[in-house]
Each structure stands twice: as structure tokens, then as C-alpha cells.
Amino acid sequence: MIPSQMLKGMLEGCILEIISKQETYAYEISEKLSKYGFGEISEGTIYPIILRLQKNEMISATLRDSDSGPKRKYYKLTSSGIESLIQFKSNWIALDDAVNKLLKGDNDNEKIL
To answer: What pLDDT digit, counting tens, does each position of 59-69 carry?
Structure first.
């Protein structure tokens, strides 16, 4: 399981990525994150991020009937959300590269472990 402090900065971009693949709702986002190995991330964690993404006009919502209860809000990316996702991916690649270099010791001669 990934520690929650490490997840906080990444979840927004990961949620944008999930929504980019298909219109989806909060519970389904939680399920997909779990299937990708993020552990159990509650809807209580996801909803504030979704609200922030909506407020910042990165996603939009549509109410639809559900087969199993009340209507659900389905989310999709806006053009601003697509731009944010592209920026997140670029930043992630740079961060991933830097951390891997550090952990492998590529830029220095000192090895601690």
C-alpha cells in the first residue's frame, strides 16, 4: 500500500487520467485506483478532489440514471482538464526520472545502502 502522504500530490493527476479514459463516477474512480494498486482510497478522499477539479473547470459532471439506485454524477474532462493532465504526465516523467537516478546513484559515487 502506498502511504497517504505520498498519494496526496498525485491523486489529482491520477483521477484526471482515469476520467480521460471514459466518463465515470466517484465510486468507480475509487475502485479503479484500488485495482491499479493504490490501495483502498475512500470516496471521502476522492470527493474533495473532484469538487476542486470541477471548481477549477478541469472536469464537468452530468447526472444519469443508475441501474442500482439514485442518479449518479458522471465526470468527463474539459479542455482545461486535458491540458492539466498533459502537464501532470510531463511533471511525473521528470520526477520519476529524478527519483530513479537518485535511488540508483547515477549522479554520484557515494552509495549508502
So the answer is: 999 999 888 88
List of domains in the chain: 4-104 (1.10.10.10)
Q: How far is CA 84 from CA 29, 41, 106, in A?
A: 18, 22, 30
Please, how many CA atoms are within 13 Å of residue 82, restricted to the half-sphere of its CB?
Answer: 6
Q: How far apart are CA 33 and CA 102, in angstroms?
A: 27
Q: CB 38: neighbour CB atoms within 10 A?
A: 16
pLDDT reported for residue 1: 62
**What's the count of helices (H) and strands (E) in the chain, helices before strands?**
4, 2
Phi then psi for residue 24, to 5 deg, are: -155, 170
